[in-house]
Amino acid sequence: MAARLGHRRGARLGPGPYRDRVYALAGLLRARLAAIPGCQVRDQGTEQCGIVTFTVDGVPADEIKDRLAGRSINVSVSRAPSTLLDMTDRGLASVVRASVHYYNTEEEMDRLLEELAD
């Protein structure tokens, strides 16, 4: 029932407000990640969505994922075989992928950023 009501509300509002929130949160996350020494935001393109990819100098992506998981912060790792041409051209073996959703909060992003800054 709640799912149906949620879908009805979404249909009434349209995708715009949700997209706008996701894009705003992801943009904030990108800017704050870029301010962390050694952290490189790896996203490209003129329109960037809610998928935020990054690396941290000298720290394997899997190690970052595991460390964050230990703090109940969910991210994933994208590896070169999944985007072979792009990542090969950029010399990347893997990246950390944070998928921002409309229900995420700035406080949740703060937790992720605090963990990375330590």
TrEMBL record:
The protein's name: Selenocysteine lyase/cysteine desulfurase
Output the InterPro entries linked to this UniProt entry.
Answer: Aminotrans_V_dom (IPR000192), PyrdxlP-dep_Trfase (IPR015424), PyrdxlP-dep_Trfase_small (IPR015422)
Keyword check for Lyase, yes or no: yes
- Please name the GO terms that the record assigns under molecular function: lyase activity
Keywords recorded for this protein, A-Z: Lyase
Q: Name one Pfam family in it.
A: Aminotran_5
Task: Give start and end of each Aminotransferase class V domain.
Answer: 24-112
Signal sequence coordinates = none
